[in-house]
Amino acid sequence: MTKLLDIFDLVIFDWDGTLFNSVGQIVQSLHFAAQRFQQPLTDEAAQSIIGLGLPEVMQTLFPQVPELHQEILHAYSSHYVTHSVHDHWFDGVAEMLQDLRQQNVTLAVATGKSRAGLDRVLTKTQSQSLFAVTRAASETRSKPDPLMLQQILDYTGVPVTRALMVGDSSYDLEMAQRIGMRSVGVSYGVHDVQMLEQYQPQTIVHNVAELHQYLLSPFAVS
């Protein structure tokens, strides 16, 4: 019976909302920055852009004040770093990643975070050694452009047909679709099932335990 681990050599994870429980703090910090500069912002709008690179976030949320983008971004980043001390992996993530590594699966991260932000949380979770390669939006193109996925494939030498993208946003799944990579959606992060389904993932899971089970299941790939 075919197992997922017979099909894929590389699993690429998004970070915020997929591995890391940080969506609420990102939204709060965006609200703080918007209010500081008297810019309108709804919860729905703030959550919808999680996964994009920070310059793209500013362009999407505050197109009316391009001259304030750097100041808003600085206010957001400062607030997030100060108040995100309690952000953490979703329950079960550490065990899932360790399990995959023990079975010789190569792991990677493709995130909308900046390199500085990603390095900070990798250090916080002491997870640098789990991932063969990581790509942050500040050092490549923002999702849904698939360049960061191509760079990960080039670095690992894994063909796209043997790689799987796991993410909670339409940006993750569209990025994978555009490069011809199969994907898994998670519904416990940013975007809902209906939005994720538009990009034809292999499946959509609703919690980390279900994701872990799916990744190791003999029925994972039809």
From TrEMBL:
It comes from Acinetobacter rudis CIP 110305. Gene3D superfamilies: HAD superfamily/HAD-like, Putative phosphatase, domain 2. GO terms for molecular function: phosphoglycolate phosphatase activity. NCBIfam families: HAD-SF-IA-v1, HAD-SF-IA-v3. It comes from the Bacteria. It holds the Pfam family HAD_2. GO terms for biological process: DNA repair. This is Phosphoglycolate phosphatase. GO terms for cellular component: cytosol.
